[in-house]
Amino acid sequence: MRRIFQSVSIRACAFGTAVLLGTASAQTYYPDDPIWKEPPPRDIGEIKTQKLHALVDFYKNTVYRKGERNSPARIYPSQGVNTVDELPDSVWYTNRHSRTHRLSADELRTGPNRTGPPDQSQPWTIISAKAEGVTPGFTIKDARGRDYFLKFDPPSNPEMATAADVICAKILYAAGYNVPENYIVYFTPEQLQIKPGLKFEDPFGRFRAMQPHDVTGLLKLVASDGRGRIRAVASLRIAGKSVGQFKYYKRRADDPNELAPHEHLRVLRGLYVFAAWLNQTDAKALNTFDTVVEENGRRFITHYLLDFGSALGSDALYAKDPRLGHEYLIEPRSGLRNLASLGLYVPAYARVRFPDISAAGNFSEQAFDPEKWKPNYPNAAFANRLPGDEHWGARRVMAFTNADIRCIVETAEFSNPRAIEIVTSTLIARRDRVGRVLLEKLLPADGFRIEDGRLRFDDLGALYGFRAPLTFDVQWSEFDNMRGTLRPMLVTGIELPREAASAP
């Protein structure tokens, strides 16, 4: 009960009794609280590109506990929140879609896409290419001089990875995060031409000039639609000067706008909830992007998430292994458990039966536990999440209605209607599981307001049909804004106390 009363007291003070404002610097609340937009970022100097190596990042986060971690002896509160425990707009995040401030269906379908797909009136020029891995990748320049990264589907699962990339980018954009513009495109090999003198590393490790037969050979490794067309995601190059990726722990030493280590930021701790909902198991530093932009005469870093081809039922190069999302890639306890049971123990995730639709991959709500979900390897910000971070994320996830989810999934341009149904229904079921579990970890109430002289708020569990309405007790207190102390009042119930009603 103590945590519930604390939550009620905090909410009631924010709306009704935090009114004793003064001029001293010790005050808790200021006249402009709550802040919904951070002050303009400070101008930065020279920024070094932060280069991360995939294997090094995997090793460091798997073997060591990177960053300052929460423990029973010390809890690090979530940073970057305002006085009503919400995220203000910042270089990390923009409030867009919530239960009370909603994007339209057209805005959800559009997402971050403002520029448009690559112009197909003339050939695309390949300006860089990679041949390693199961599927290749190209960077192309269109007739308007715009650069796009082309990413493909594996032959075993046409439409799977490209759909995941588009769907997740639009959901995360609506949720408030910075993501690239991703477009589904179809083209023929004849649409591509090679930049004169372009060199690349071929599949045999030789660095040489790229030839037309190299392009033809690489495209044979990706899925086609049976009509000679290649489907891809064209991801527009993010504006500004790239300065590498951000880590999920520490802070950039050369960025004066970073005021807290990343493992303490609500924006990254709460991202766990979205990663779990979307099964984005590849949530790691290598799939982030920092860029220096200039606005109103100031240069500053903006932080992006990208590469969502390993979300939903996709693992980019093949359908997702059922184990992913339930265990880390290296999980010693799993091996010991199997050894102790002589291989007879079968975990719940291994008993899930996935629909036989290749475009949907292996995506299911069965065995999904939003409290125990795991990315491919440990993530300091995710591990540091507190109930408040989960509650914030769950409220943002629940803001997506069934219709919202369907209209976003339809933009992935699945050719099989069953794929639309599977992905939509699974996202809805996983969303509801997130809400049922994580909303109840704190006071399941939101939307606090004063109407007709009474305190009003919404019982979230009842609002979403998860359970019957609860009965709430309300105890009012007077808050001393200069000393930061509470004095309980002999007033209970939802009626606004006279002292609060007559306050400035």
What do you see in this structure?
This protein has helices spanning 2-17, 54-63, 105-110, 160-175, 212-219, 266-269, 271-278, 332-340, 380-383, 387-398, 402-410, 417-438, 460-463, 498-501, and strands at residues 124-130, 137-141, 147-152, 182-187, 192-194, 199-201, 207-209, 230-236, 241-242, 288-295, 298-305, 445-451, 454-459, 475-480, 485-492. With 504 residues, the protein is of the alpha+beta class. The strands form five sheets. The protein has a six-stranded mixed beta sheet with strand order 4-8-3-2-1-5, sandwiched between helices. A three-stranded antiparallel beta sheet has the order 9-10-11, with no helix packed on it. Strand 10 and strand 11 form a beta hairpin. Helix 10 (387-398) packs antiparallel against helix 12 (417-438).
List its salient traits.
6-stranded mixed β-sheet; disordered N terminus; alpha+beta; 504 residues; 15 strands; 3-stranded antiparallel β-sheet
Question: Helices, strands, pairings?
Answer:
Layout: H1 2-17, H2 54-63, H3 105-110, E1 124-130, E2 137-141, E3 147-152, H4 160-175, E4 182-187, E5 192-194, E6 199-201, E7 207-209, H5 212-219, E8 230-236, E9 241-242, H6 266-269, H7 271-278, E10 288-295, E11 298-305, H8 332-340, H9 380-383, H10 387-398, H11 402-410, H12 417-438, E12 445-451, E13 454-459, H13 460-463, E14 475-480, E15 485-492, H14 498-501
Parallel strand pairs: 1-5
Antiparallel strand pairs: 1-2, 2-3, 3-8, 4-8, 6-7, 9-10, 10-11, 12-13, 14-15
Helix pairs in contact: 7-10, 10-12, 11-12
